[in-house]
């Protein structure tokens, strides 16, 4: 994989962008982040690694994430376990994950949360750099990552009692926080997630292994979530207007809104005064080539052909 556009940046930034220190672990068959991502993308990146080109400008946010991780690691208490990789064999495949911080918890304190402690009680901490929009979305996608970490720790003699994400909101604005209680109230926010049972975690991990290592060699298509697909929306646009007045989850909701006559734009109008159409669903990860392998993907090729009407 090569980076393009490096010449747009200073030498220190160029060096930082090309100095990839990531180590997936010599014994690892698949990492936690790889396990929860698309098997098709993983396969295409492996098969076309030398051909893949990525715009260096897209790697800048990753640098910011690295800096935030380093800041947290260098200032963590000595008793915290930071940036350590944990392993577990699942169905003959070695799964591993490098956890940002494993925080020891006194046994008596942990037993107040879970009286059935088995192993060393700990809290899992993970560091993220996100947008305010992402913070307000609930970030449920991180729950899977944290619970695989919890499973790995259990297999290594620990007992996680909590999974916490500490997120730096890179576009945070104080003025927004003051007028909206649902907006992140601090530029660095903490979010706690539910922990699954061991059986639930293991079942999920095994189901992902089956997708990433198919016995028939056929990799599944990317899911709507993996393609960052937008949700289907219906728009109501008054005839003669360039922009939609309102978006809806269904066509029925749009027509009900017109019939109710509650909005100033609908008063005195009929269905004939409006165009109600479905907005096309967009596969943002594919169309923006955020996976870096869209040009090699047959699934995306078929999607483009159907979209173009071919």
Provide an overview of this structure.
It is a single chain. By secondary structure, this protein is α/β, with parallel strands linked by helices. It has twelve helices and eleven strands. The protein has helices at residues 11-18, 32-36, 39-47, 60-74, 107-113, 132-136, 142-154, 174-179, 198-212, 251-260, 284-287, 298-308; strands spanning 2-4, 30-31, 53-55, 81-90, 93-104, 120-130, 158-169, 188-193, 233-238, 246-248, 274-279. The longest helix is centred in the N-terminal third of the chain and has 15 residues, at 60-74. The radius of gyration is 24 Å and the shape is globular. The mean pLDDT is 91.
Summarize the structure.
This protein is of the alpha/beta class and 310 residues long. The protein contains twelve helices and eleven strands.
What would the keywords be for this entry?
alpha/beta, 310 residues, 35% helix, six-stranded mixed β-sheet, globular, three-stranded antiparallel β-sheet
What is the mean predicted local confidence, pLDDT? 91
> Could you tell me how far the N terminus lies from the C terminus, measured between alpha carbons in angstroms?
32 Å
Helix/strand order: EHEHHEHEEHEHHEHEHEEHEHH
The number of E-state strands comes to 11
Helix content: 25-40%
Shape: globular
- What does the radius of gyration come to? 24 Å
Beta-strand content bin: 15-25%
Q: Based on helices, strands and strand pairing, what is the structural class?
A: alpha/beta
Low-confidence stretches: none
Give the biggest beta sheet.
6 strands, mixed
Number of H/I helices: 12
């Amino acid at each position: 994989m090569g980076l393009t556009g490096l010449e747009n940046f200073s030498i220190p930034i160029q060096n930082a962008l090309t100095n990839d220190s990531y180590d997936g672990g010599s014994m690892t068959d698949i990492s936690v982040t790889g396990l929860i991502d698309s098997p098709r993308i993983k396969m295409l990146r492996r098969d076309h690694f030398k051909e893949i080109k990525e715009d260096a400008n897209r790697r800048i946010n990753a640098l910011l994430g690295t800096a935030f991780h380093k800041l947290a690691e260098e200032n963590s208490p000595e008793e915290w376990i930071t940036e350590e990789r944990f392993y577990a064999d699942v169905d003959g495949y070695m799964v591993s994950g490098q956890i940002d911080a494993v925080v020891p918890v006194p046994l008596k304190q942990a037993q107040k949360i879970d009286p059935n402690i088995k192993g060393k009680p700990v809290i899992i901490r993970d560091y993220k750099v996100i947008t305010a929009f992402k913070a307000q979305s609930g970030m449920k996608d991180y729950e899977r990552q944290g619970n695989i970490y919890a499973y790995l720790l259990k297999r290594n003699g620990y007992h996680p009692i909590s999974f916490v994400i500490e997120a730096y909101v890179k576009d945070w604005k104080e003025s927004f926080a003051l007028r909206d209680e649902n907006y992140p109230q601090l530029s660095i926010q903490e979010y706690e997630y539910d922990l699954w049972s061991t059986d639930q975690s293991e079942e999920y991990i095994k189901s992902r292994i089956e997708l990433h290592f198919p016995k028939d060699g056929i990799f599944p298509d990317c899911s709507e979530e993996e393609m960052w697909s937008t949700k289907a929306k219906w728009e109501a646009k008054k005839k003669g207007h360039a922009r939609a007045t309102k978006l809806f989850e269904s066509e029925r909701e749009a027509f009900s809104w017109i019939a109710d006559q509650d909005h100033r734009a609908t008063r005195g109008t009929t269905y004939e005064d409006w165009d109600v159409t479905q907005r096309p669903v967009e596969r943002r990860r594919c169309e923006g080539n955020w996976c870096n392998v869209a040009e090699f993907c047959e699934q995306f090729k078929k999607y483009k052909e159907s979209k173009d009407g071919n």
